[in-house]
């Protein structure tokens, strides 16, 4: 398939780009001066020194700030934006649900059985529920959700955005009167945030239900004791930390893959290194996880 065919496929898969393509937008045209105003289309000039990494991080921070401002702007949710938003919310959640539900259920069941059997063998059954909720629901499942959404949606979406930049479609959209940040990038970022929050909540509910069934079976006689023990773990501080962790996970997973690749002035855009991209994502996720552990246990 030629580059032109790839460009046409990328355009028709996005409602906003397809709308502007039908209006006669020419993909692949040279960048105009007005396009330089976009942060996401003009990464900072970088050198080959360690300053390059600092400036690269600063450009990503600027892009993240731009996305956060657009998220809070009412104009980002006007009627003309709804088709693109619905399209990305659907693409970020529905195709991921079956595989994630199966994987999360199997992993949760294995961990639950291991913890319950170990606790019973040492006569510590009264601590099994506390350990399961703290390790599985508060720590492991949010990490799993963040990495799963990154691999299945946001990193492929970031690759598609990088190709749109290389082909000049975002610049063509800007010159035709559109806003690439609001019309193309923001829906994908919101889709990533929505997917992480949705799957994190779903996995937590599934894990709690499976834990109850494992401990008490398909009966209701242990419901009062179970809810009391779970409530003691989910104190206000732990609940706030879990919600904040899920939110920051969603921002990192959704924004970082969409940010522009730092490059020296005049250099051509290159295809993203997926391993390096995953490493940066995992580093930020691990930092958030460490901070949440400090908040929960110190």
How would you describe the overall organization of this protein?
The chain is mainly α and 298 residues long. The protein has one domain (47-297). It is built from 11 helices and no strands. It has helices at residues 3-13, 15-22, 51-72, 82-93, 97-121, 128-167, 169-175, 180-216, 223-233, 236-255, 274-297. Helix 8 (180-216) packs across helix 10 (236-255). It is elongated, with a radius of gyration of 22 Å. The model is unreliable at 23-48 and 264-272 (pLDDT under 50).
Brief digest:
By secondary structure, the chain is mainly α.
SSE diagram, text form:
Layout: H1 3-13, H2 15-22, H3 51-72, H4 82-93, H5 97-121, H6 128-167, H7 169-175, H8 180-216, H9 223-233, H10 236-255, H11 274-297
Using only C-alpha atoms, the radius of gyration works out to 22 Å
Report how far the terminal alpha carbons are from each other.
56 Å
Shape category: elongated
SS class: mainly alpha
Range of helix content: over 70%
The share of residues in extended strands comes to under 5%
Annotation field: number of helices: 11
What is the count of distinct domains?
1
Secondary structure: number of strands: 0
- Note the main sheet: none
SSE string: HHHHHHHHHHH
